[in-house]
What we know:
alpha/beta, 5-stranded mixed beta sheet
Amino acid sequence: MIDSDAGRPRWSSPWVQALLLAVLCYFCFFINLEAQEIGLMEARNFVAAREIHAGGSWLLPTMNGELRLAKPPLPTWLVAVVMNLTSNTTDLGVLRLPSAFGASLLVFGFWWLARLLASDRFTAWLGAVVLATSLLMLTVGRDGNGWDVYCYCFMVWALAALVKGWQSPVRAFGWFGLAGVLIGLSVLSKGPVAPYGMLLPFCASWLWRGGWAAAKRHLPEAAWAVVVALIVGGAWPLFLYSKHASEVAAVAHNESTAWVERHVQPVWYYWSFPVFTGVWVVAAVAALAWRFARPRLQRFLPYTQLFAWVSITLVLLTLIPEKKERYLLPVLPPLALLAGGMLRFWLLGPNHQTRLDRRLLRLWGGLFAVVGVGVPVALQVIHLPGYHAQFLMYWGCTAVFGGIAIWAVWNLVRQPQASVILACGILVTVGFTSLLMGTYPQWQRRRDDPGLRPLRTVVSQHPECQKLPVFSLNEEMHIKWIWAAQRPVPVWHVSPTEGNLLSVPLPVIVYSSHRLQRESFPASWRKNVKIAPLDSFTIGHKVSDGTWHVAKLESLDSPD
Length: 560
């Protein structure tokens, strides 16, 4: 017989746990939020939000002046709200706040869901801790694209509302109506992705566990949830279709074919999915070993349902030819709760552990010891600026990670304690985000050629690039460059024989992949236009990647 209070800390009050979870989310998702360079999806989201902030349409967002129909607008709206509130359109740390808050809300929504599913509430809290500090969650929660984190954030809360409804002994139209609203918001965040990747597997696992009776009893409320979800999630697509039917049909065709033609990977691409739990990989792998884990975990949580949830999600994701690592996000919640259950069992103490349990704990502690020793050594080898032996930051990292290594080794030479392993996992994660995440820009640029000149530097040094109309000559600029240009950059098609007259008077700024010469323009223009080279910018991390040129076009009769 297992004591239900064994291994449970004295601070098991929900309010204390909520505070600790909030502090952990702060360190995981908010510290050094500005460190990482802007990514492709982030640039698209931020450019579209910037154009809304500049006076564009909220219902018909644009990206570089063209309709942005490929992605639902909710994450872009949230960034635009932040821009309006802060009047800041350039600080990556500020613009990533919606994603960081979304990740935190996802963690707290999952904690609520886990409390509804698990018979032991401390296990639910451990699952939320594992989810917050998982590698993939850290990556997605600190990325400003927003589409991934918000679609699953709303869906996790929707699942919790559904469970509350199913568990109700009476009619629960309120809970199911709330679930419908949240599902609709998820659709407005990334279309049908979360209903397919999370809602469908969860409902299947719920029925597998034996939820048929509750599902039948609340069938009218479930129908009500579907109606509400269709209204909320379908309102914007229907409005869009009423305004731009042909464009919507083309985008829908392109997006659907992308699932089978772009980023195609083999069926075994996702087999390494436990690795994305990061520091909790040992517990995650152990929790997936049915014969080993089920007898240990089923007293704390519905093991069969969670195992089915993980398995069905993985199968559904594998069926889609297009595969990316971040698409594994819907696997993390059930896997995190299973890993939390494994931790909960090990926290019962040595009296409940077998030799295999103790070996796994020793292996896990050994990995933390290697990480604790390896970080200071790696900083010395890599020679990142500001992290040499003569800098305080280096010694701070050495103290933290060296302390983790000493604690882990001390735990190895005695009876391994799961509480020490839990603390080491949290400390490693917090140490990386708070002490090492600031080195990420230097790490990304460690092999850059010297003397690179990015577009953002050129724009900051030439005020006319922000004041005069700007154009890209004959080819579309990469979206990251458009973000760096701090404004839309439409394409101007022109050749030595013909060209479209500009709709704005000179002077204008022109970006071009080649050095502008008078021969680049029709002969009828050359006598009226003066080309004044301003600058150039490099387009990659190597000079060999190429250079674009910046010039100012003026009328010959304009004053110098």
